[in-house]
Amino acid sequence: MNIPENLRYATSHEWILVEGDTGTVGITDHAQRELTDIVYVEPPEVGSDETAGKECAVVESVKAASDIYAPVSGEVIEENKELADKTELVSQDPYGKGWLFKVRLSDPGQLEDLLSAEEYANHVGE
After folding, report:
1. CB–CB of 115/8 below 8 Å?
2. For the whole model, what pTM was predicted?
3. Distance separating alpha carbons of residues 79 and 77, to the nearest angstrom
4. What are the pLDDT digits (tens) for 81-117?
């Protein structure tokens, strides 16, 4: 399983890549494997204020719908519009083109509450 070292992870299987005060958020390789074929992605609305640990998006697969939780608090500044027509990107490239949304962090200290790659690997039993 792919667990990049440069990301932080939520126990609910979201990842975040932080660049300055912006975080790019997606679901982990582990999560997309559990969901299997993703057929629909509903990201949070641009401009919405999300709270760490709260539901903010939905990913649907042929198996089930799954809530996505905000790994940090902040304002959503962009959604991955490419996923509207290419939901398979979440499965094919979960840490690249399959990202879900970008958020402007309101409290960068919340990153300390997230898992490192090694901690996340232990969490999922890798």
Report:
1. yes
2. 0.95
3. 7
4. 999 999 999 999 999 999 999 999 999 999 999 999 9
